[in-house]
Specification:
homodimer; alpha/beta; 10-stranded mixed β-sheet; 16 strands
Chain lengths: 416, 416
């Protein structure tokens, strides 16, 4: 019998209990051992459940219980989750977590601690919910050098963008609907500002490239500025707007990492990832492009990824899994300003023609291609600018503004 | 140092050598040990290679070498691959293979032998080439009950269908192009008749449902009968034709397994899997639909999956991986004739209207919906038939033929 404890009986934590209950027999068969939840930490009361007797409000009850070999952390947030997880790893307990903030902010430290104490620290559920992605990157693609990862990593924003694209809702209408359906929180900023996607691409980057990338080092732009006009121009260009977290290894050994809305060509596998689904493209030097698609969030998909980690943990109590990356090092994350960029720009002036003429003069005629909107506004022009760096693009957009042309939008164009 | 041997220096075998050479350092880091190819079995001569000295024509050189702990089988075909793999597993050597025929025909037996001798028998490369699929199903989805798997499992036929759909080549033109590009063999029957896809869905079914399904138990239909008229009707219906291998668990515990061309709706993730790419949808009771996409074949993608297995093997020389299924049992595979089916039918008579009227009389007017072709032929009608079993559909198509209506095509319609 393998005894585990669950920290937090919220959406994911209660889902873990549910999955363990529904599939008790098949999980025991797969883990080669029965798994029993001995303790659940939550400050709230949950009377009337089959396992109500397991609850405790005191973490010490779990930490001091030598029978508990695996602790599942589903509290979310950095504190006290971090403190508890550290304590577990310092006291001989392996940890499974779904907490992307914890892994993105403290992954290197916790992995080092787990390694030192010959324990497991697993977090399949922290990225892509129920989509297997952490393990495939670390194992199946082990014979590859990953050159690039790009993903639709946040279901809430993808739902909003899908509604904007398919049903022509504007951003605030689509956000309201997402909130009504329970896909977005009352304070939606972590989703719509890109923070959540940023944590996830940090985890994937750290895993794929072996060096921790912290969220505060990553240029992050959300989708609050995306308008229906932009959606229309993306359509004319031949694609859709998606919030993409991406990381790419550069020839000099640095990584270019970024979260921002992007034009994605209709032919791309990522373009057809709609609604609350996630899709993650991993580009390997020998496998080429591999894409993983599925529900990126939700109680049961996320819980199933947690339980898969628990099963793996039970099977490897003796032999530690080799999931590891080094701590961050200076200069590993490239300055985003030097990156080359192709971007769509929407600008307005007295007339769209005047705006476009000014753009041609500033960028050089051959570097600007005009897009003709399906439903044009007389004062606006949309165009694609090529051959700039992030810095030179920003500078030239400044020059455009200085000439009285209003830059309404600037959205990068992806190459996958 | 972990010593391995490679059986067969063909496309995949030489790719394994290439991947191990390109990524020697990173692979050693991931495996926590250096991996050296000590012997390569091939009857041909390969002078002038860095590793030409490793070749042998005598399998006994490998079998008797106690230093060799892992044997990589890339010969393909059933004999002598099966005999060599058995001998390895009987003599303390773990085996990694890319040979889908071997796994589909002998998987249960070889897994049992590996288990008995506490060795690994791994075959990630046997399905989906470089796409991680065997390990995600066995590990990441361990907390799920898989209810259904459906995949585009053969790149050659997908390339041919893509050319038919996009460029309106007919089947034989597209096949010829595939042969010229090296995607199809001179004798293309294993691909175009569905044999290759059948082996792969057998492996996935065995893995997901724990009981071996042999290829000769699987109803298999290839794409040789698919015409441009069918492609046109699929377009009108709202989708594309794909060769799908599928397996579904029924409520009575049996599985419904089949390989056949199908109409796939344009909104499906499988519809956008084009050219030589593969896509595999895994439906789990708690994760929902997860889709894996990538290059299903090719030297380096396949080799990278083989090498990932080798790395896993090196890391688990002591602790065996739990990959296992039972041997086949009678009645596990459901009689395909009792399955319910929705199908597209193309029929011709003196006029299309006459053909359709006959169909309405035989199937009942409410169960038949006519499709209007983009480029109609006056003597043909295309329609969708609902509410039949495979048996009753076949019977009624027979009745249609008996009334002088020629059934030109019958293609099943998928629900994913």
């Amino acid at each position: 019998m393998a005894y585990i404890a669950v920290l937090g009986h919220g959406v994911v934590g209660s889902g873990v209990l549910e999955v363990l209950t529904i599939h008790t027999e098949s999980i025991a068969k797969r883990a080669k051992e029965r798994i029993e939840v001995k303790r659940i930490l939550d400050l709230r009361e949950f009377p009337g459940l089959a396992y109500s007797g397991c609850f405790t409000k005191d973490f010490a009850d779990i930490l001091s219980d030598a029978e508990i070999g695996i602790v599942v952390e589903c509290m979310g947030g950095l504190h006290p989750a971090y403190d508890y997880v550290r304590a577990c790893l310092e006291n001989g307990k392996s940890v499974v977590t779904s907490n992307k903030e914890l892994v993105a902010e403290k992954g290197a430290e916790l992995l080092a601690l787990a390694q030192k104490n010959n324990l497991n620290f697993l977090f399949e559920a922290s990225v892509g919910g129920g989509i297997p992605i952490i393990r495939p990157i670390s194992q199946c693609l082990a014979a590859n050098e990953v050159s690039e990862i790009a993903g639709i990593l946040n279901g809430t924003t993808n739902f909003i963008l899908t509604k904007m694209i398919r049903e022509h809702m504007d951003f605030s209408q689509a956000l309201k609907l997402a909130q009504e359906l329970g896909y977005a929180e009352r304070d939606p900023s972590a989703d719509v500002e890109g923070t959540d996607a940023c944590r996830k691409i940090c985890i994937l980057a750290s895993l794929a490239f072996g060096t921790h990338v912290y969220p505060n080092c990553v240029y992050t732009e959300g989708i609050t500025g995306v308008t229906l006009e932009d959606v229309d121009f993306a359509d004319v260009w031949g694609g859709v707007i998606k919030l993409i977290g991406s990381v790419k290894r550069l020839e000099n050994g640095q990584v270019h990492i970024m979260v921002c809305p992007m034009f994605v060509h209709r032919g791309s596998q990522l373009a057809s990832v709609d609604d609350v689904f996630n899709g993650i493209l991993v580009r390997g030097d020998v496998t080429g492009d591999v894409v993983f698609y599925g529900k990126g969030a939700g109680k049961l998909p996320t819980a199933s990824a947690v339980v898969a980690d628990v099963i793996d943990c039970v099977k490897h109590m003796a032999a530690r899994k080799y999931l590891f990356w080094e701590d961050a090092k200076p200069g590993f994350v490239a300055d985003p300003n030097v990156a080359e960029v192709t971007a769509y720009v929407r600008a307005s002036a007295e007339t769209g023609d005047a705006a476009f003429t000014a753009a041609q003069e500033i960028f050089g005629g051959e570097n600007v291609k005009r897009l003709l909107a399906n439903t044009p506004k007389p004062e606006e022009a949309g165009f694609v600018v090529d051959g700039e760096t992030e810095a030179s693009l920003a500078e030239k957009l400044g020059a455009l503004a200085a000439r009285g042309v209003r830059v309404e939008s600037r959205i990068r164009i992806s190459d996958y």
